[in-house]
Amino acid sequence: MALSREQVVTTAVDILRRYGLADLTMRRLARELEVAPGALYWHVANKQELLVEVAGRLLAAIPEPDPDRPAEEALAAHAHALREAVRHVPDGADVVALAHAVDPGSLRPVEELVRLVGRAGVPAREREAVAEVVLHHVLGSVTTEHNQRIALDLDPDFRARDAAAVAKTFEVGLEVVLAGLRRV
Amino acid sequence: MALSREQVVTTAVDILRRYGLADLTMRRLARELEVAPGALYWHVANKQELLVEVAGRLLAAIPEPDPDRPAEEALAAHAHALREAVRHVPDGADVVALAHAVDPGSLRPVEELVRLVGRAGVPAREREAVAEVVLHHVLGSVTTEHNQRIALDLDPDFRARDAAAVAKTFEVGLEVVLAGLRRV
DNA sequence: ACCTGAACACCGTTCAAGT
DNA sequence: ACCTGAACACCGTTCAAGT
């Protein structure tokens, strides 16, 4: 049976989940699918387009924000959902950041984030700016957390601040931004 | 006269300034220095280490924060200085983000940022978390700005929001974070 | 001490030619 | 329509051997 775009993207997500971004190469992906590398370019324009699709998949399970909840609460929940979607996939945050950079507006949950910021009272002109702050915080804190994990594995002296404290970083930062929203 | 680590790093910065990160390869760097690629590995352990050094150079001109200024004012000025240092170098924000990820604590102005957050009244336990929010905002907004410039060049229809408005994104986000600091 | 030559094990992408 | 084979133009890194 013929290869499909669907199949290409699914296998790409699989490689990412299992081995991380460094192993997600077009050639490796072709090997996994038992086709020649050139075959992929029938289903996908290039690697960038593939990564945008992969990022979409990572965030696909995030639920639409509940319109009946208080705006700020829904915003916090959405930020947590974004974080969780990306936290357990190696280099997941980088892939989403890349996709957002390459093709902003292509990620449904990011668009929802912008609308939530609006519901929280931020005027239309400033919504995207504030949503970017939240998004950068989510993605940045996940990356920092992963790197700290690596540092911990590599260098056992690096036990100064333990893993639980590291994870709390996210909450603190999110609270600062939410407090800022109330004041501006 | 023999090659030196100094010379290697300086030329790397040069290539980055002129052609961006995609062109900053070990082989290209060797060509520019008129040596074999292997020669670089006498002066530098690997590409990661080189990029950490390059990031340090990009931020080297940032002045130490003025201890006599009000904390919040000094913090805002420092954030602006970080932004300016990185804004005019193609992929400068990515290089700094990478260096910070690979070797946190290696960038003097980032350490100063943490101390400024402390001076602004954030308790020691939460200083790093908040400093990361500011740093991610600075680097993230520069990346977004650059990508928007590219989109503008590529697709003239993308004139919806003009360049000046795009640059203001940074100010809005920074104000939200500063307001958050006052409230938490 | 410092560098070259040559290799190893890879990349992303294109494209004529096949089915 | 969909894929292969083969090429093009690259990567980062290592290391024996030279000076």
Which helices and strands appear, and what pairs or packs with what?
2 copies of one chain form a homodimer.
Chain A: H1 5-19, H2 26-33, H3 37-43, H4 47-59, H5 71-87, H6 92-102, H7 108-119, H8 124-154, H9 163-183
Helix pairs in contact in A: 1-4, 2-3, 4-6, 5-7, 5-8, 6-8, 7-8, 8-9
Chain A binds a DNA duplex (19 and 19 nucleotides) through residues 2-3, 25-27, 35-39, 41-43, 46-47.
List keywords for this structure.
2 domains, DNA-binding, Arc Repressor Mutant, subunit A, Tetracycline Repressor, domain 2, 184 residues, globular, homodimer, mainly alpha
Radius of gyration of chain A over alpha carbons? 18 Å
* Greatest interface by residues involved: A-B, 35 and 35 residues
Question: What general outline of chain A do the C-alpha atoms trace?
Answer: globular
Mean pLDDT of chain A: 92
Number of domains of chain A: 2
Which parts of chain A are unreliable, with pLDDT below 50 for 5 consecutive residues or more? none
Strand content of chain A: under 5%
DSSP helix count of chain A? 9
Number of strands of chain A: 0
Your description of this structure?
The structure is a homodimer of 184-residue chains. With 184 residues, chain A is mainly α. Chain A folds into 2 domains: 5-44, Arc Repressor Mutant, subunit A (Orthogonal Bundle); 62-182, Tetracycline Repressor, domain 2. The first copy, chain A, is 73% helix and 0% strand. Chain A has 9 helices and no strands. Chain A has helices at residues 5-19, 26-33, 37-43, 47-59, 71-87, 92-102, 108-119, 124-154, 163-183. In chain A, helix 1 crosses helix 4 and helix 4 packs across helix 6 (92-102). At the A-B interface, helix 8 and helix 9 of A face helix 8 and helix 9 of B.
